[in-house]
Fold:
Amino acid sequence: PRLAGAPAPEVPPWYAMEAHRRPPAQVLEDALRGPLERYPGQEVSRLVVDGPARRALLEAAAQADLLVVGAHRRTSLPGLQLGLINHALLHHAPCPVAVVPQE
Structure:
């Protein structure tokens, strides 16, 4: 139940809602399709890792020059709202972290 006056929950992108029904590699390909069409010729390395996102990203950051993560903008709150994973990455990643707001 929502409280009176509380904003309606945001609907996640279609690929997030359907992600649990498809193989992880397909979810990744679907998520990258739009950006790869907008920026042809960009080199993209794909790696699907099984396990907690925080651990996988911190391990990847150990070999990276820059870790880029997304963040949601919530219309009811000012600024970016960082979740637990982004917060942990900002504090523990061994490389710089760029937080990019979702379009």
Observations:
- The chain has two domains: 1-48, 50-103.
- The radius of gyration is 16 Å.
- The longest strand covers residues 67-73.
- Helices lie at 14-17, 24-38, 53-61, 84-92.
